[in-house]
Amino acid sequence: MSDSTHLVLSLSCPDKPGIVHAVTGALARRGGNITESKQFGDSDTGLFFMRVQVETTVPRLELEKDLEALAGDYAMEWSLDEVGRPMRTLIMVSKEGHCLTDLLFRARSQGLPIDVAGVVGNHEDLRAVAEFYGAPFHCIPVTRETKEAAEAELMALVESLGVELVVLARYMQILSPALCERLHGGVINIHHSFLPSFKGARPYAQAHERGVKLIGATAHYVTADLDEGPIIEQDVTRVAHEDSVAALRAKGQDVERRVLAQAVRWHTEHRVLMNGHRTVVFA
Known about the structure:
- The two termini are 26 Å apart.
- The longest helix has 24 residues, at 245-268.
- The chain is built from eight helices and 13 strands.
- Helix content is 34%, strand content 31%.
- By secondary structure, the protein is of the alpha/beta class.
- α1 packs antiparallel against α2 (60-74) and α7 crosses α8.
- α3 (98-109) links the parallel β5 (87-93) and β6 (114-121).
- Its EC number is 3.5.1.10.
- Keywords: Hydrolase, One-carbon metabolism, Purine biosynthesis.
């Protein structure tokens, strides 16, 4: 289609007959050409989820008016965005750089659709990594006494930089419940364990003590409940009885970076929809 725009629509609403017909019909009446469509009805929650990519020459504002009308009829939550638009992203780190380096490399060379607005570290250790990739680095130290002020500084950065997504790339600090609420659905964390096993600190040491044969990593949305947010992606790798804690950590870091990058990609492509304490992922 000449002079067309490629858009992605994601939505959720109470499940009932006619939703797919209503949505696709609205797009068709505007001359939209659907290039991808996936849907899922969850019998447990009674909710319906849908993701549609459509090419259209109709102005986006006109489509949004149509969708707003549908939202009223179906109690629908929806979003509309351009396919492939890089999402303004802030990456937060502490001292370990494997996830940060991987995200920055993928953004530069492998088409990960993020526009890195900056990197925030609570230590200076990874400044050189961020600056190598041309990402502004902001050091915001955090102590028990300065946590409130540090989070206020972080929130000011989020607002001033137009940040849409915050990624905790092995950021070894717990966000306050108030901050989690303000950024709800917009913060992804990588936990170095296959949740719900080995929550909290030192999961590789916990795994070593239990003699597990598989270790993994979990990318999830951040909530006020530690390591309890809706899971986006997980993966595992095999380990052996002779592996030390250090060996487990080395193997696990490779899984961590892959899982985090996949979760970030799916989120920025609008493939992840919240379903209570779970997610629907249209991979």
